[in-house]
Design brief:
Structural class: alpha/beta
CATH topology: Rossmann fold
Mean pLDDT: 80
Strand content: 15-25%
Largest sheet: 7 strands, mixed
Shape: globular
CATH superfamily: ANL, N-terminal domain
Low-confidence stretches: 1-8, 237-242, 263-273
Radius of gyration: 18 Å
Order of helices and strands: HEEHEHEHEHEEEEHEHHEHEE
Strand order of the largest sheet: 6-7-5-3-4-8-9
Distance between the termini: 28 Å
Length: 273
């Protein structure tokens, strides 16, 4: 069994590598497109890392990730962090003005988006280059979009690992920066305070670009090597339903899929297994 000590837990990439070595065949993430094991997530992240390097993404730069919930999200984030790239978590539902705002406030070297979002982004901001990126099945389901004001080095504090942007309801998204150790501490807090266990399934019906979705959904999976807990995270597409309809849907998820934890804004509920 591969273990990792707190002293070795210097970054998200190392922690996830240890998890994949410990439980390679265990399912890590489920989406409507299928499931990925820890080993498959790691392999996808390694492929993406080589692709990003080949396209000129550099250590210390900023790359904004604007993806909907899907299998690609976790491998993309891990790939970028393994390169020491500052990851900006950006909502894929931003309007033109909000993409313009984050591009001006924190100019990235590139955006990672779904291939079907390229046309919209080209209308929203000035784009210099678009590079198709192969997804799980070898098809170009992703794209690396380089804006004309592309910046290789970020102007943030030393050691900056991630910036979580607000949902954009104010019209001008604001970002909160995190160091690597802050992210790991946040993950520990989530796992320990909420009692995430080996057999848990965490349903995420909100965007993982949102702090709720990322912190309460993806961080527990990344931290599994330290806490010896390997929950399965199910990333649901954003639900355009009323509150009453959502309650019915969540109850069905608990009853039919043995979901023990529901990731949702304001309240973090635990169902009966």
């Amino acid at each position: 069994m591969t273990t990792i000590t707190d002293a070795q837990a210097a970054d998200l990439w190392s922690v996830f590598q240890a998890t994949a070595a410990r439980v390679p065949s265990r399912v890590a993430v489920e989406t409507s497109d299928g499931a990925l094991t820890f080993e498959e997530v790691l392999a996808a992240a390694e492929r993406l890392r080589e692709t990003f390097r080949g396209l000129g993404i550099e250590s210390g730069s900023v790359v904004h990730v604007a993806l909907p919930n899907g299998w690609e999200y976790l491998p993309v984030v891990l790939a970028l962090r393994s390169m020491d790239v500052v990851v900006g978590l950006v909502s894929s539902r931003y309007r033109d003005s909000e993409f313009q705002s984050v591009t001006t406030r924190m100019p990235p070297q590139a955006f990672v988006v779904s291939s079907n979002m390229v046309e919209f982004l080209e209308r929203a901001i000035d784009v210099a280059e678009v590079h198709p990126v192969a997804g799980r099945a070898g098809e170009p389901s992703l794209a690396l979009v380089v804006p004309t004001n592309s910046t290789v080095r970020h102007a943030g504090p030393e050691g900056l690992a991630m910036v979580k942007f607000t949902s954009g309801s104010s019209g001008e998204p604001k970002g909160v920066g995190y160091l690597e150790q802050t992210l790991l501490a946040e993950a520990r807090n989530v796992v320990r305070s909420l009692g995430v266990e080996e057999s848990d399934r965490i349903l995420v019906p909100i965007s993982v670009s949102h702090a709720y979705g990322f912190d309460l959904g993806l961080l527990p999976v990344i931290l599994a090597a330290l806490e010896k807990s390997t929950p399965v995270v199910e990333l649901a597409k954003r639900l355009e339903v009323s509150k009453a309809q959502l309650e019915v849907w969540l109850k069905r998820a608990v009853d039919e899929k043995n979901i023990r934890k529901l990731n949702r804004p304001v309240r973090y509920a635990r169902g009966n297994a």
